[in-house]
Amino acid sequence: MEKNHKITRAKNTNRTYSSKFLKRNTLKGRGDKSIYVRPEYHEKLTRIVKIIGAGEIPLYAYLDNILKHHFELHSQEILEEYNKNNKPIL
């Protein structure tokens, strides 16, 4: 029941896509990790940042915002799956 409430609350916010995802965040730089995405995703992400974000947000910040939102929405499910597959040693 909690899961459905959490998803409904997230969908009912009056924030626009841009205000949710195309904003600067607290990251000071790209960090020291590389990730790989499908070329077609990279093209779409880059176009979104350039056009909707008016080139004012770096791609790494946009991806960080997407991941933050994903973890907020699915944290309970992730935790349940993790605990189910990772039994305590003692």
Automatic annotation (TrEMBL):
Pfam family, one: DUF3408
Domain of life (superkingdom): Bacteria
The protein's name in its UniProt record: DUF3408 domain-containing protein
